[in-house]
Amino acid sequence: MHDLPLVIFTILSQLVIGGFVTLWWLDRKKSPISRQSGLMISISLVVLGAISVIISLLHLGHPFEAYRAILNIGVSWLSREVTFYGIFVGLSVLYTWFWLKDEAGKRGLIGGIASAIGVIAIFSSAKIYMIPAIPAWNSVTTLFSFFLTSLILGPLFVGAFLAIRSELSVNISGISITALIFAAIVMIVYFSSLQGGLPQAVEAARLTTHQLLFWIRLFTFVIAFAILTFCFKNQHIQNKKIYSLVFVILFVSEFLARFQFYETAIHL
Amino acid sequence: MAKKLGFLVNIERCIGCHACEISCKSFYQLEPNMRRRRVTELPENLVGTPVRAFVSTACNHCDEPACKKACPVGAYTKREDGIVVHDQNMCIGCQMCGKACPYGVPQYNPVKKKMDKCSMCYDRLDEGQLPICVEKCPLEAIQIVDYNEVQPSNAVSVVPTFADPSITHPTTHFILPKPGKQTRRF
């Protein structure tokens, strides 16, 4: 599949941005995150960010000429995505440096700027796909689903990491449950709009729901929601195993959804 | 006033011989599965009474080209005369233009690993020659028209299978076949 590098890139980049914003937010809230944990999370996000950039190059015919992809920033959303995501990864390296140096003030400032740029990068990424030539993509649900992937995976990644290091002081399951409820609403709106749209959109909906992957995605989504709800109601059982398990389940779920997003897109 | 060059395809004349498609492919030495121009058969209820009709399409050199907006490296330019030109030297093969074009015109060249599309043979036009498809059509079914000068009254901007022209405002126009006479036999 030609778009597989893009599936991996979009999922990883959204996970990294979501995780980064979560870490920055927890750090700003003066949550007790040790320097070592903050540094480790920050480094892992930088590594994942770098991996996502390298993987994104694989869908290009000429990966070594990718640097030119910022030339048309005035009109091309792809140029904007490349530029803003590149700046975000660069700033996250700087943010990691300030964790290493344990300079909270500078870390907060750079983290804030990087978070804002990360949000713009996700927005640009979604706008690339909101094109009339592919009716199944040309909707605001694309924008919502990209941001929701970030909101679902990012906090859970940081939550699982902090739970493993026994430093989790915030109940992450509340944020994740809210994101999953929004994701379920977006999913319903998405399929309703496809069914009422152009023939290519109807066909995209048919293709999506007729694949086993769709049902696996739905099953994993429901299972993750159930576990998180159980965690939320029984706050004493927030532990590393549960957060890690839910993160893995939702990562698979989001990956399958994104895979189908590309795979079932029907051109006009 | 600047020109606005576009193709005028006369479906009434086209017999579906594919000469335009093959002459272009041969002239530009395209890879086996690539075509800059394609001839397709249209539904027979095109004009009411059943007709067998074909349409030859290539890049529509749109007024608002989606390929140009999508390209991250700025490989697309729209000339003064309206021709949309793709610079393969700039292309990095991201294939976004192919996704963004409602007509799926830009194609991926698997050997060069870059995109490719009809350039309306602008270099031939600049030398006073006709585009190769126009020259080789035995029925003279394809013309180049300056739509700022001429607006053929019998031309339409959309045929079945053609995407909504309001998206990118393609310059290509078509002359539909005349409806045949139906003779009722009792």
Automatic annotation (TrEMBL), chain A:
Pfam families: DmsC. InterPro entries: DmsC. The keyword Transmembrane helix applies. PANTHER family: ANAEROBIC DIMETHYL SULFOXIDE REDUCTASE CHAIN C, ANAEROBIC DIMETHYL SULFOXIDE REDUCTASE CHAIN YNFH. Keywords: Membrane, Oxidoreductase, Transmembrane, Transmembrane helix. GO terms for cellular component: dimethyl sulfoxide reductase complex; plasma membrane. One of its GO terms (molecular function) is dimethyl sulfoxide reductase activity. This is Dimethyl sulfoxide reductase anchor subunit.
From TrEMBL, chain B:
Keywords: 4Fe-4S, Iron, Iron-sulfur, Metal-binding. InterPro entries: 4Fe4S_Fe-S-bd, 4Fe4S_Fe_S_CS, ET_IronSulfur_Cluster-Binding. It comes from the Bacteria. CDD domains: DMSOR_beta_like. It holds the Pfam family Fer4_11. One of its GO terms (molecular function) is metal ion binding. Residues 5-33, 50-81, 82-111 form the 4Fe-4S ferredoxin-type domain. SUPFAM superfamilies: 4Fe-4S ferredoxins (SSF54862). This is 4Fe-4S dicluster domain-containing protein. It comes from Neobacillus novalis.
